[in-house]
Structures are given as C-alpha cells and as structure tokens.
Amino acid sequence: MAKIAATAIGAIVALIAIIAAAVSGVVSAVLGGGNSAASSQPSPAALADIPGNYLALYQQAAATCPGLDWSIVAAVGKVETDHGSLIAPGVHNGENSAGAAGPMQFLQPTFDSVVAQHPPPPGGSTPPSRYNPHDAIYTAAAYLCDSGARDGRDIYGAIFTYNHADWYVRKVLDQANAYKAAQQSAPQQSGWAVPAHGTCSSGFGSRGGEFHRGQDIAAPIGTPIVAAAGGTVIDSGPASGYGLWVRIEHPGGVITTYGHNNRNLVQPGQQLQAGQPIAEVGNQGESTGPHLHFQIDVGNQAVDPIAFYQQQSAPPLCG
Ligand SMILES: [Zn+2]
To answer: Could you list the pLDDT tens digit for every one of the 319 residues in the chain?
Structure first.
C-alpha cells in the first residue's frame, strides 16, 4: 500500500496507540497486526471538515479493528449525518422514516446486537445510546469490522452491509479518500504503469462484427498484472465473459478493467498505487489464448488504451 517510510508508519502507529491508550486506558494490541497497512493521517480537508471530538472518536474506534482505516468510519459519519450536524428527523432525537437514529444512523435492533457483542468502552452513555457519538461511532466501527473490514478483507462489503447500495459504497470510499492525507510522493503514484508486459494482440475497435472495448496483451499464464494507476478496487471476482476480472476506479471518473485473469490478488475496497500487483494473466472466460484484456473507461465510455497512454505521456502500452 502506502509507500511511506517505515519510520513514518511506526510514528503514526505509535501516535495512534498512545491516543487510544490515553483515552480508553486500553492499548490496542491489534494495530499493525494482520495484513493491513497502518492508519492514514487526516488530510487538511478532513481537519477542516470533521469536528475535533468526532475525529478523535473515529480514530480511536477504528483502531479497535485491524485493517479498518479511520477515514472509512469518518466517511460513513459524513455521509450519514455530516458528523452529527445534520438537522433531520432521527439525528438528535426520534427516528427517521426508516427507523434510523443518531449520528451514525443505526436501527435499534442492529445497534443492540452489535453492542451486545462489542460493548463500547467507558466514555459514553449508560446504557449505550445511538444518539451518543462515542457509543455510535465505536459501534459503527465494530459493525464494519464484523461485516468484512477486519484485516481489510472486504471493505466494500462492509460498507455495503451498512447501507445496501453501490452508490452509497462509492460515496463513502470517495469521501474516505478525500479525508486521507496524500502519501509522500512515490515516483509512479501520479502516473500510469504498463499493466502487463507482453505482446499487444487484438486492439481496440471493431472485431468480427462486434466492438472490442479494450486492448489485449498476450503473455504467458501467471505473468504479473499490476494496477495501471492509483485507485480503489471496485470489483474482483468472476464476471461473465471475462473469467475473473479486476476493476479499479481512479480519480477523474476513470475505470480500468483487467480480464481473463488466472488469479486475483486484491479485494474490493483496497487502495492501490500504480504498479502494485493485482492479478496474474490467465486464459479464463471467452478467451482464445493466455492474455490480459485491458480496458479503460472514461465517464463510462471505453476509450482506446494505446491512445489514452499516449495522451497521459505514459510508457508505451505495447513496449
Ligand atoms: Zn480483449
């Protein structure tokens, strides 16, 4: 993930551990565990937008779940109620028409069942209340954790469990990205990388009566496929015609698709930088030989990947 220096990661982990220990009296032993990256730091936009007490709660609550970045919890709080500041039924008292209440918009049965398994640490209401930001945010983090966020296993699914809509998941992930400070610059971070090294075979355009929406790159099975640019994984799994595919959303409404994969290495919700391995070349789905189907959509419109790479002054796609 983040290409920040190990010392910086250590400092961040230590800082958050100190905060968590100071506030809850319990050192979160899970930080740095699992296969997840260390928590991100708040961006200037996050510091300007999130009230200080909420920011501290998001960070402390997320620290109870390895692999759950605080920015995800904060983004849920933003999208649900603008960190408790939304004036609407159910935010400060009562319930909205769906029965949700409080800054994190919990249904009472959901809140009760999560609290039963993960009582919030001292500092909130007695008994825990949906309207109490401390209780609501700790419970939201526990709920996301149980729903797939643990170890970063399925962030997308965890957010989807919170609110069953793809638009909602995208909105939360976009918000979370805006809340994370830019990582220290890595040379390839802003650029584009060649997704797989091989021989460009079938190109973009009409092909035997149908329209081929990507560029095929022929390479042996098992050849590494890397993220063409930094972004967020939005799909990873089987897809009709593609065998296994990975789709990555990049800034600016750009989505890249990698199809016919032999094996996928990433999960939806995962944040990637250009050049990071995501899959292996395969021959699955409607494929007539081992190759990568590489597709670039800009605003839901497929574009010619070779031309796109030239426009971006990226390395030539076809060596
Ligand atoms: Zn293709």
So the answer is: 444 444 455 555 444 444 444 433 333 333 333 333 467 888 888 999 999 999 999 999 999 999 899 999 999 999 999 999 999 999 999 999 999 999 999 999 999 999 999 999 999 999 999 999 999 999 999 999 999 999 888 889 999 999 999 899 989 999 998 998 775 434 443 489 999 999 999 999 988 788 999 999 999 999 999 999 999 999 999 999 999 999 999 988 899 999 999 999 999 999 999 999 999 999 988 888 999 999 999 988 999 999 999 888 888 898 6
The structure tokens 């395969």 sit at: 282
- What spacing in Å lies between the alpha carbon of 261 and ligand 1's midpoint? 12
CB-CB neighbours of 169 under 10 Å: 22
Q: What is the dihedral of CA 282, 286, 291, 297, to 10 degrees?
A: -110
Distance 286 CA to ligand 1 centre (A): 9
CATH code 2.70.70.10 for 199-311:
yes
Facing residues of 276 across strands?
A: none
Listed by start position, the domains of the chain span 6-179, 199-311
* CA geometry: angle 99, 104, 107, nearest 5 deg: 25
**What separation in Å is there between the alpha carbon of 218 and the centre of ligand 1?**
10
Which H or E run contains 186? Answer: none
Asked: is 6-179 a CATH 3.40.50.1100 domain? The reply is no
